[in-house]
Design brief:
Shape: globular
Number of helices: 17
CATH class of the largest domain: Alpha Beta
Number of strands: 18
Helix content: 25-40%
CATH topology of the largest domain: pyruvate-formate lyase- activating enzyme
Bound molecules: cobalamin, iron/sulfur cluster
Number of domains: 2
Strand order of the largest sheet: 2-1-3-4
CATH architecture of the largest domain: Alpha-Beta Horseshoe
Structural class: alpha/beta
Length: 432
């Protein structure tokens, strides 16, 4: 079949990101023998003209629209991307009779809401590497697409959801077709293709839905397959850099070590970073191993320096472990960034001060990414707090964009905090 994949994401903060999800499903459709092209809204100045052009040329039978973010997730700068997706859908509907299928990380948690909002009939939640080719196959032979795992569909006016299936054999999944996207243009922005070494997360942090969405059991790529994929990506995209977009790179630790060893043994000379290393287990030996394997600028997910808030968040590490991790990264000669979340349940000016004090005691991070207020989504533990504190009255508010901010932080205090953080030269406060 002729398939067009549209990547809808245009957000540039905190950093631009490569459309890896769209690239993975494009790769899966290509491997299944379909003719596939991609349209990336990120670089488009004239979306209607360019999209209509590619639709006229390809005459797609299926248009897969990938939704990465529902909104900016920033209380201090809320941006709603639903209108942008609607614009894409309207253009596609006007220019073609192709089947439209929705998917992507921004769709996974809000499938029914999206179908209603866009007045569409079909989408697939969850990992698309297996389900998307299955959908194409079923469509081609006139079968029943409502049986595809993860389907969300409309029937007689009602919206139904089919249970998702997690991919167990990640080694058997096709490579991403990164080369369908403008790698050079992304490179100029300092953005590179991203791979994942595993799926799943057992941690169940109170503000995060991922353990529910991806499952609490790790599903691992073998280090050999991962190194093959790295090698393939470097050749196919002409890049020496990429990122590992795992939920947590350094868990399970034996797997992360084995991945690093395999990269070293292959002599791939790849530079990579990762947006989430947990402070637990960041021994000097492990940091040195990461460095030798090509790691540069990992993000240490600290989130808070207050023991009480860390407990509330279910983060399961101590101030000492944070200090040890940051010090060992410094000793190993790896510059790093840090991420922090302010305003979660129980946060007070005193717990914020604990975090700021701890930050002063750590070796200097290249960047400290900090967020004030937490974006609310289905499956988060903090929804209970949000309802109790009167910050979420109806579930429907989450799709519109709803946030939690600890009631112990007054508006004046937040203004003061913003001013204080803005003075720090290596801090990036999201939304200011
Ligand atoms: C790594 C990561 C980051 C990194 C990205 C680094 C980089 N270089 O790419 C950083 C830290 C920068 C980041 C930032 C943000 N992130 Co982020 N991030 C992630 C994370 C952990 C992994 C994303 C990833 O690459 N996954 C691997 C790819 C291959 O998976 P995927 O894109 O989901 O695609 C799969 C499926 O969705 C599906 N699929 C995708 N497209 C399509 C299309 C069709 C038609 C079909 C059928 C299927 C399908 O198949 C794909 C293959 O399995 C996810 C959590 C998660 N586990 O998903 C959050 C996540 C994507 N981020 C999220 C958010 C909100 C953000 C921010 C807005 C946060 C903020 N307030 O700034 C920013 C946005 C940045 C931007 N410019 O867009 C949300 C998005 C959902 C939502 N609620 O809107 C997620 C899901 C976390 C969450 N809350 O649940 N992020
Ligand atoms: S914040 Fe990270 S570690 Fe915690 S549950 Fe979400 S993905 Fe897992």
């Amino acid at each position: 079949m002729r398939v067009l994949i549209v990547s809808s994401n245009r957000l540039r903060i905190p950093v631009p990101v490569f459309p890896s999800g769209p690239a993975y499903i494009a790769g899966a459709a290509l491997e299944a023998g379909h003719e596939v092209e991609a349209f990336d809204c990120f670089f488009s100045d004239n979306m209607e003209g360019e999209l209509v052009n590619i639709i006229r040329k390809l005459q797609p039978e299926v248009v897969g629209i990938s939704i990465r973010n529902v909104h900016s997730g920033q209380l201090l700068n809320h941006q709603d991307f639903r209108g942008e997706v609607k614009e894409i859908v309207d253009i596609v509907k006007k220019a073609s009779r192709a089947h439209i299928v929705l998917g992507g990380s921004g769709f996974n948690n809000f499938g029914c809401e999206w179908l209603e909002y866009l007045e569409l009939d079909y989408g697939i939640r969850g990992e698309g590497e297996v389900s998307f080719p299955l959908y194409l196959e079923e469509l081609e032979k006139g079968g029943d697409i409502r049986t595809i795992p993860g389907s969300v569909y409309r029937e007689n006016g009602d919206i139904h959801e089919v249970t998702k299936q997690f991919i167990e054999d990640l080694d058997g999944t096709p490579y991403a077709a990164f080369e369908l996207f403008d790698i050079d243009a992304y490179r100029q922005l300092g953005t590179f293709p991203s791979l994942i070494t595993k799926k799943g997360c057992p941690f169940r942090c109170s503000y995060c839905p991922i353990s529910a969405l991806e499952g609490t059991r790790y599903r691992l790529k073998s280090p050999e397959r991962l190194a093959d994929e790295v090698e393939h990506t470097m050749k196919a995209c002409g890049v020496g850099m990429l990122s590992f977009n795992d939920n947590v790179f350094n868990f399970p630790k034996e797997h992360a070590e084995a991945v690093c060893r395999e990269l070293i043994q292959r002599g791939l000379d790849v530079k990579w970073w990762t947006d989430a290393v947990n402070p637990v287990g960041m021994s000097l030996d492990f940091c040195l191993l990461m460095k030798e394997a090509g790691c540069m600028l990992p993000n240490l997910s600290v989130e808070s320096g207050s023991p009480r808030i860390l407990r509330n968040m279910n983060r399961r590490y101590s101030q000492e472990q944070i200090v040890e991790a940051a010090s060992n990264l410094e000793k190993a000669g790896i510059p790093f960034s840090i991420s922090l979340l302010f305003g979660s349940p129980g946060e007070t000016p005193e717990t914020v001060a604990e975090t700021l004090d701890l930050m002063d005691r750590l070796p200097r991070a290249q960047v400290v990414f900090s967020t004030i207020g937490l974006n609310l989504e289905h499956y988060q533990g903090i929804l209970e707090d949000a309802c109790r504190d009167g910050q979420l009255v109806d579930d429907k508010e989450m799709f519109e964009g709803a946030y939690y901010l600890s009631p112990y932080l007054s508006e004046d205090y937040i203004d003061e905090l913003k001013d204080r953080l803005a003075e720090k030269d290596n801090w990036f406060v999201l939304g200011i």
